[in-house]
Automatic annotation (TrEMBL):
It comes from Nonomuraea recticatena. PANTHER family: CHLORAMPHENICOL EFFLUX PUMP RV0191 (PTHR43124:SF3), PURINE EFFLUX PUMP PBUE (PTHR43124). The lineage of its organism: Bacteria, Bacillati, Actinomycetota, Actinomycetes, Streptosporangiales. Keywords: Cell membrane, Membrane, Transmembrane, Transmembrane helix. PROSITE patterns: MFS. SUPFAM superfamilies: MFS general substrate transporter. The chain crosses the membrane at residues 29-53, 65-89. This is Major facilitator superfamily (MFS) profile domain-containing protein.
Length: 130
């Protein structure tokens, strides 16, 4: 019978999922997970911000539309900056770019908290809120 397999031929179509991943593959998945968490955090950040625009506008004494510029400016800066920084820093070592970016973020993050009024408000709005 031609349909029978020889006893010395062994084959399987089932992948053994219990086998441990090689170290190289584990590091690759760790990078994918880290990028996924980062993308989730950035995306969630803007949704949370949109829900708080009413409170932000009341606290700053500006219109909701003016407070909404925070979301617009962030999105534009992110879109333009990602392309430009990729082109400019593409040949730099990744570790140097990451450490430099984190340091710059840490240095510049407290600056907006020290502003007395919203930078996008008009002089009239500043006089009313101040």
């Amino acid at each position: 019978m031609e349909d029978e397999m020889d006893d010395d031929v062994v084959g399987t179509a089932v992948l053994d999922r219990t086998a441990p991943l090689p170290e190289r593959d584990r590091r690759g998945w760790l990078a994918v997970v880290a990028l996924g968490i980062g993308a989730f955090a950035i995306g969630t950040d803007m949704f949370a911000m949109a829900g708080m625009l009413g409170g932000i506008s009341r606290d700053l004494g500006v219109t909701v539309g003016a407070a909404g510029l925070t979301v617009t400016v962030f999105a534009l800066a992110y879109a333009i900056g990602a392309v430009l920084l990729s082109a400019l820093l593409g040949s730099w070592p990744l570790r140097r770019v990451l450490i430099g970016s984190a340091a710059l973020f840490g240095i510049l993050s407290p600056r907006p908290a020290r502003c007395p009024v919203a930078w996008w408000s008009t002089p009239r709005e500043s006089a009313v809120s101040g």
